[in-house]
Design brief:
- The complex is a heterodimer.
- By secondary structure, chain A is of the alpha/beta class.
- In chain A, 51% of the residues lie in helices and 17% in strands.
- The mean pLDDT of chain A is 88.
- Chain B is built from 6 helices and 2 strands.
- In chain B, helix 2 packs across helix 3 and helix 3 packs across helix 4.
- The longest helix of chain B has 35 residues.
- Chain B is globular and about 60 Å long.
- The chains are: A alpha/beta, B mainly alpha.
- At the A-B interface, helix 2, helix 3 and strand 1 of A face strand 2, helix 2, helix 3 and helix 4 of B.
Chain lengths: 307, 186
């Protein structure tokens, strides 16, 4: 890549410039001016056609019968929440500012904390995954391994890794889902050591095993790896959603855990049953919190994509 | 004032005055908290941070933006048609606010750091003070202008006056405020 192409890439939507810009803004914008700045930049990013179209297509399925105009406003609300979530995440990492937390299904969360041994947390691209992991790491003595898709931009990846090393401490480590089998063995070892593995189970990255499910009547794929890991390690899968419910306010929603056990000779049948339960929880969470499902790609195949 | 780090399991702690930044908001929070009985909510975690009051921050943001838009509209109206000034006022206000933040962050703070020989990456406190000073300097000017904009300027002055009054009241009742804060520490 030429120097000028590399320079231009920094300013693309996933480019490193915007991460650096966000960090600078968190450290320089007066708190009382943040809502105005975030409202303005959420509007500017709405110009990003690819992301806007992806969210609008998803909303068309989540809110059947909704008008295009209404979905434009809903899409803005998704971008607005994304901007706040990113800012809260950076503010926590740089200034250790924590938001208000409340719980829905606290019994399941307490069971997760109290049960010895490893555990698998399954979440979605909602609210703040990073803040949730930090909260867990600080309320529990166990280490957390966060699995995420690697950043597509190499400079952004390096920046995020540096930021994580500087700010997250040793209790939260990151594993990348693109590393396939090697990661699977690492995660199994982590669960067997008594650590908690946190995985986002609403999107499939290339090279990751998946299963077909229906979300809002549309066929899509969700990763099967967490359930295979649960079956191999005999650790339950704990669904957990970190929902943003206001400025510096988050709610941790924890449905009951999913036990993934061999009940028959048909391993696929047992895995599919667990995947089905997760798909139901995921659909319920997205139905309630559509405005913070940060999935900027259509989650189902569209006619345009197919052609 | 009693300082707590985090309050757990108490929903009524949301209205503690120490979770608000400005005196007027702290006084309103105090009056609200006095009327709220202790409410236990298992698992709730509420940090004691003066910037946690969302209603306060959104109100200040909206007020600042609307007032700045009025000032921008007045400046534009001196050079363009009223309709153009009305349409362009809000975008211009946004640009001016961004410019103020950028100049403060890239010019003022490094200069101040070099003069005072202090280096800190967190400039939000100083940015808040500097931008407020700039805002009230503009307010002082527009309060004397013979046009509709002086109503926006005088509203800003009245709000500042109310905040000062609230600060005096809070000082006079600080024992009661402290007792309320301590109630959540138990």
């Amino acid at each position: 890549m030429t120097t000028s192409a590399r320079w231009r890439q920094r300013f693309l939507v996933r480019g490193v410039f915007w991460r650096q810009f966000l960090r600078w803004a968190v450290l320089n914008v007066p708190v009382w001016l943040e809502p105005v700045i975030i409202a303005a930049w959420a509007l500017i990013f709405l110009l990003w056609g690819h992301g806007r179209r992806g969210v609008m297509l998803n909303l068309k399925a989540i809110k059947p019968g909704s008008s295009t105009l209404a979905n434009v406003f809903r899409t803005y609300r998704v971008f607005w929440n994304f901007a706040w979530t990113m800012a809260d995440n950076v503010r926590f990492k740089e200034l250790r500012t924590i938001p208000d937390w409340e719980f829905q299904g606290i019994e399941s969360f307490e069971r997760l904390l109290a049960t010895p041994g490893g555990a698998i947390i399954l979440t979605a691209h909602m609210g703040s995954y990073d803040l949730g992991a930090q909260l867990f790491a600080e309320t529990s003595s166990r280490s957390v391994v966060m699995v995420r898709a690697p950043e597509t931009d190499p400079e952004t990846l390096a920046y995020e890794q540096q930021l994580h090393e500087r700010t997250a401490g040793k209790s939260v480590t990151i594993g990348f889902s693109g590393n396939g089998q090697a990661l699977a063995f690492d995660l199994l070892a982590a669960v067997q050591r008594g650590e908690v593995v946190a995985i986002q189970g609403d999107r499939v990255t290339p090279g990751v095993g998946s299963r077909r499910v229906k979300l809002f009547g549309k066929e899509t794929e969700i990763p099967v790896g967490p359930f295979a890991l649960a079956m191999a390690s005999r650790a339950p899968v704990h669904p957990l959603f970190v929902m943003r419910i206001g400025r510096r306010r988050y709610r941790l929603v924890t449905p009951p855990p999913i036990e993934v056990t061999r009940r028959s000779r048909d391993r696929e049948h047992d895995l599919n049953a667990a995947v089905g339960i997760w798909a139901t929880h995921l659909e319920n969470a997205i139905r309630e919190g559509w405005y913070q499902w940060f999935n900027f790609e259509p989650y189902y195949a569209t006619e345009t994509a197919a052609s | 004032m009693t300082h707590l780090g985090i309050v757990r399991d108490r929903a009524d702690a949301r209205w503690l005055p120490s979770r608000s930044r400005y005196a007027l908001a702290r006084l309103i929070a105090y009056l609200r908290a006095r009327r709220s009985p202790p409410a236990e909510v298992r698992g709730m975690i509420l940090p004691i941070d003066r910037d946690q009051n969302a209603a306060e921050i959104y109100s200040v943001a909206a007020w600042m933006f609307l007032t700045t838009s009025c000032y921008a509209g007045e400046l534009l109206a001196r050079r363009t048609a009223p309709a153009v000034a009305a349409l362009a006022a809000a975008p211009l206000a946004l640009l001016l606010l961004h410019a103020a933040v950028a100049i403060n962050g890239f010019v003022v703070m490094p200069l101040a750091g070099a003069v005072l020989r202090r280096r800190s990456s967190n400039h939000t406190g100083a940015a808040s003070t500097n931008l407020m000073l700039l805002f009230f300097a503009a307010t002082a000017y527009f309060a004397t202008v013979e046009s509709w904009v002086r109503f926006a300027a005088w509203t800003a002055i009245v709000v500042a006056g109310l905040n000062t009054f609230a600060a005096v009241v809070l000082h006079l009742i600080h024992d009661s405020v402290d007792a309320l804060e301590r109630r959540c520490a138990t």
